[in-house]
């Protein structure tokens, strides 16, 4: 995607464009549209990007009669990142917000975020709190878990927050409102990633300027143990790719680098790939400061083993 792909702003352009990527979501797309149309801030356009669906997703979206809604049909599936990029290229607003086809926005989300951006004119984007609601494992007797992101352990939540994002992703896509020109200049989401493209983009975005924050759970996200397990292999590959792409940013931050390798080690163990888990564990230990030459050698050996382990991972099935 190139900046020239997007239509120019005009005095009649809405302040914000909301983009919903949708693939095979005929059963849920109308509810997702309704959650956006219920916003207390009403001066926006809404783009539903049908990502090559075959189940009537576009037709279902077109049943909603609202002049702010436009449905864009992609001729073939590009994945969530590609669909969001296509939406950004079609956007007419100065700001772009992203919603997923199965999550919920609270009615005041856009109003509060745009007000925060008006109060912080130097900010290039704003995000808000995310409440995740999910079922625990089968042996948890039907209990659910609530979690608020960013958690209380996160100290740097606003301003130049790239160090926070190198530790963990606190800017899920559906929480973000970003300046369109900045999004396009950064090249949008990386379509080569099988998953976690929101984290990789957030790292780049936070390196480009200040980020504002609304400390309220304005987005609700639901998940299940099955969905987390099903996506683990994609997440592992994406995490490794993001770490490699962002490696220069970890220079001088050995504790943050070690943290990422420990996470990869744990996830590899969960997936059953014990060889990769051992390699990541060795890399994590070697990343810490003050290590001796033998540790440096172990880093080299672990890197070779890790490369072999990554090559053995299956290709993306999507």
Automatic annotation (TrEMBL):
<dbReference type="InterPro" id="IPR050834">
    <property type="entry name" value="Glycosyltransf_2"/>
</dbReference>
<dbReference type="GO" id="GO:0016740">
    <property type="term" value="F:transferase activity"/>
</dbReference>
<feature type="domain" description="Glycosyltransferase 2-like">
    <location>
        <begin position="17"/>
        <end position="141"/>
    </location>
</feature>
<protein>
    <submittedName>
        <fullName>Glycosyltransferase involved in cell wall biosynthesis</fullName>
    </submittedName>
</protein>
<dbReference type="InterPro" id="IPR029044">
    <property type="entry name" value="Nucleotide-diphossugar_trans"/>
</dbReference>
<dbReference type="Pfam" id="PF00535">
    <property type="entry name" value="Glycos_transf_2"/>
</dbReference>
<keyword id="KW-0808">Transferase</keyword>
<dbReference type="InterPro" id="IPR001173">
    <property type="entry name" value="Glyco_trans_2-like"/>
</dbReference>
């Amino acid at each position: 995607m190139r900046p020239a792909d997007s239509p120019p702003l005009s005095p009649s352009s809405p302040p914000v464009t909301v983009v919903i990527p949708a693939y095979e979501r005929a059963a849920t797309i109308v509810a997702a549209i309704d959650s956006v149309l219920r916003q207390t801030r009403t001066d926006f356009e809404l783009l539903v990007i049908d990502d090559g669906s075959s189940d009537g997703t576009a037709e279902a979206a077109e049943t909603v009669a609202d002049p702010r809604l436009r449905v864009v049909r992609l001729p073939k599936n590009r994945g969530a990142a590609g669909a969001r990029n296509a939406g950004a290229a079609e956007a007419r607003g100065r700001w772009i917000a992203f919603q997923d086809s199965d999550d919920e926005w609270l009615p005041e989300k856009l109003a509060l975020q745009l007000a925060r951006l008006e109060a912080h004119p130097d900010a290039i984007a704003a995000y808000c709190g995310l409440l995740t609601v999910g079922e625990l494992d089968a042996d948890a007797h039907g209990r659910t878990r609530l979690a608020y992101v960013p958690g209380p352990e996160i100290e740097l939540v606003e301003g130049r927050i790239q160090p926070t994002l190198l530790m963990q992703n606190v800017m899920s896509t559906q929480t973000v409102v970003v300046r369109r020109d900045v999004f396009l200049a950064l090249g949008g989401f990386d379509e080569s990633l099988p998953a976690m493209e929101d984290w990789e983009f957030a790292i780049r975005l936070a390196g480009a300027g200040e980020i504002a924050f609304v400390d309220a759970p304005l987005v609700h996200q639901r998940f299940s143990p099955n969905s987390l397990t099903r996506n683990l292999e994609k997440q592992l590959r994406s995490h490794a790719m993001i770490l490699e792409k962002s490696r220069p940013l970890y220079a001088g931050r050995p504790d943050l680098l070690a943290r990422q390798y420990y996470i990869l080690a744990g996830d590899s163990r969960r997936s059953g790939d014990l060889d990769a888990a051992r390699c990541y564990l060795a890399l994590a230990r070697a990343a810490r400061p003050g290590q001796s030459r033998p540790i440096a050698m172990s880093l080299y050996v672990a890197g070779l083993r890790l490369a072999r382990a990554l090559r053995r991972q299956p290709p993306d099935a999507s």
